[in-house]
Amino acid sequence: MIFQVAQEDQKTFTDLVRQLVGRCTSDIEKARTIFRWITVKNLNTMQFDDNLRGDTPMGLLRGIKHGTESYHVLFKRLCSYAGLHCVVIKGYSKSAGYQPGVRFEDNRFRNSWNAVYVAGAWRFVQCNWGARHLVNAKEVPKAGAKGKSDSLR
């Protein structure tokens, strides 16, 4: 169902969330469905109309593609429409380029992610990392081999 909804362009957040979580039976299922919808969208291949309003699902995705919006804002908004309590957390993450022992002295490792309250506890969600896609998958090097650094976006 998620993939079917992801192939369509919903005009409003209300329509999108209704289609996504209408059959979900728990809050954790709602959060997982929203996460999966976001991460299945391949912004590297999507084309957007320049006249899209920014306060629509496709407008927000276009903003993410162009660097004026972020995944954590989209996830929080969709959770809000689904009736889930979700917050944005800002901080540092040990992501690409981090080496053990490196201190967080500048903005190189600044990051944001979400926490959503489901099943009686806060769960951390990082849509940005989940939405990465392999590019030219046939050319991806074997584990441990040196190869193209741009194969993951």
Automatic annotation (TrEMBL):
Provide the Transglutaminase-like domain boundaries: 61-129
Lineage start: Eukaryota, Metazoa, Ecdysozoa, Arthropoda, Hexapoda
What is the designated name of this protein? Answer: Transglutaminase-like domain-containing protein
Superkingdom of this entry's organism?
Answer: Eukaryota
Q: Sorted alphabetically, which PANTHER family does this protein's record hold?
A: HILLARIN
**InterPro entries for this protein:** Papain-like_cys_pep_sf, Transglut-like_Superfamily_Mod, Transglutaminase-like
